[in-house]
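Forum > Structural Biology > Help requests

Title: Can anyone predict the 3D structure of GOLD domain-containing protein?

Hi all, first post here. I have the sequence for GOLD domain-containing protein but no way to get a structure on my laptop. I'd be grateful if someone could post the structure tokens.
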Amino acid sequence: MQYDLNMYEPFYGSFVALPDLYSLQAKYDLIITSPSGTRVHETVGEPEAKFHLVPYETGKYRFCLRLNQDKTGSRYVLSREVLWDLHVGHADTHSNTNLKEHDTQSLWHYVHQVDAQLQQLRATQQYLYWRERRHRMTVESTNRRVLVYALVRNGVLVLVSMMQVLFIRRMFSKQFR
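Reply #1:
Sure, ran it for you. Structure tokens for GOLD domain-containing protein below:
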């Protein structure tokens, strides 16, 4: 993905890997490259991440989000879903010399600031929602595994106890005859 960004215009974003059909955790690498080719930000092997950067050059920034096979638990390719979110700060475009517009320019500046903060809040809320959902699915999956393991273990213990009782009965019944 490429986005055209202006110098000193902050941008922020996040990604969250949603669990697949089997609740496996996919881990991703995110590399953000500037127009000159230098790496501005790098995240390696994470299922979720947030970033906030201020570009120091104008141009097309490249965002590369790829599946990290080494850190992902599954060797097989399954359909994966990633929630991607990116917001770019607003530049102040009100530069007319009209007196009436000059009076409202500071008001528009505050409106843009509130709008940017609201967008950031929404993005953070969405990020936290999907992160909590992914964590909840992991906990439920772990609880299910623990329950199955405990039932199997208790079943094996009951079976072994019954076999011991039968073995001891058989041993005593043959010994006295």
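The longest strand covers residues 59-67. The chain has one helix and seven strands.
Shout if anything looks off.
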